[in-house]
Design brief:
This protein is α/β, with parallel strands linked by helices. Helix content is 36%, strand content 18%. Helix 1 runs antiparallel to helix 2 and helix 5 packs across helix 6.
Length: 264
């Protein structure tokens, strides 16, 4: 999820340059390739562009919720097509936001801009799909986006009915310091975006946490910590035995996920 080793090259290139572009260098490794949903293999999704932001959208079946999906820090929407198809097969709606720099979206590549886009998007959900319950799904980097959104004013009187977090972290700064402890004194250049350990304490929404037991990018303990810090009485932690960071989407995880989603 993070390639903080890039930090070293940035430091050698100059502190000022690093300070201006730390987030982009360290956090965002998106694939800008724009592939429409039909070309990716899912004609049930439609592509919408709003203010430079690319969205993939599909209505839910009557009475079913919509998944508002925030992806990880690499690849593009086309890489997640199997997931979206699985949601649609089960009658769930989908709204997937491509961050700036991913899948044809444009705009500033920083945490503040991404979060602002997410909050505006939440307010637009009723105009994008058939109105109904919303489930937030965060994948890796997107877990922080989802949790901060859930705690924001944007949700108003229509909060999500559930939250799914796949490989969540406690904060970007916590993660960087744990993976690269020798760089700890310098990582403050990042600020502390997406402090999920704080946002989760504000959520009593039903929660599902999925995490691989062999995740070498975001330690499994961070998923455990997020689960422990959640005040929700309705929460599930599912650890996928033997899974790393990029292969959590296994049969056992899908079975738990679909049972969880079916309740809403």
């Amino acid at each position: 999820m993070l390639r903080l080793v890039v930090f070293l090259a940035a430091v050698f290139a100059g502190t000022t340059l690093f300070a201006l572009s730390a987030e982009q260098l360290l956090l965002f490794h998106f694939d800008p390739t724009r592939i429409n949903p039909e070309a990716a293999g899912e004609p049930r999704l439609r592509e919408i562009e709003r203010e430079g932001l690319v969205l993939w959208v599909a209505d839910p079946a009557p009475g079913r919720p919509t998944i508002l999906y925030f992806h990880g820090n690499a690849g593009n929407l086309a890489n997640r097509i199997a997931r979206f198809s699985a949601f649609l097969d089960r009658g769930l709606g989908v709204i997937a936001m491509a961050y700036p720099g991913s899948s044809g979206s444009v705009g500033k590549q920083n945490s503040q801009t991404i979060q602002e886009f997410a909050e505006v998007l939440y307010l637009q959900v009723p105009a994008l799909v058939t109105p109904g319950p919303i489930i937030l799904y965060g994948e890796s980097l997107g877990t922080g986006v989802a949790l901060q959104l859930a705690a924001s004013d944007a949700v108003g009187e229509s909060p999500p009915v559930a939250i799914v977090l796949e490989a969540p972290y406690t904060s970007i700064l916590d993660l960087g310091r744990q993976i690269y402890p020798r760089l700890g004194p310098y990582l403050h250049w990042l600020g502390d975006p997406w402090v999920s350990r704080e946002w989760i304490t504000m959520q009593d929404t039903p929660l599902l946490v999925l995490h691989g037991t062999e995740d070498r990018i975001i330690p499994t303990q961070m998923g455990r910590d997020i689960f422990r810090l959640s005040p929700a009485t309705d929460k599930i932690l599912h650890l996928v035995a033997g899974a790393g960071h990029n292969n959590v989407w296994q049969v056992s995880a899908q079975e738990v996920l679909y049972r969880f989603l079916q309740r809403f």
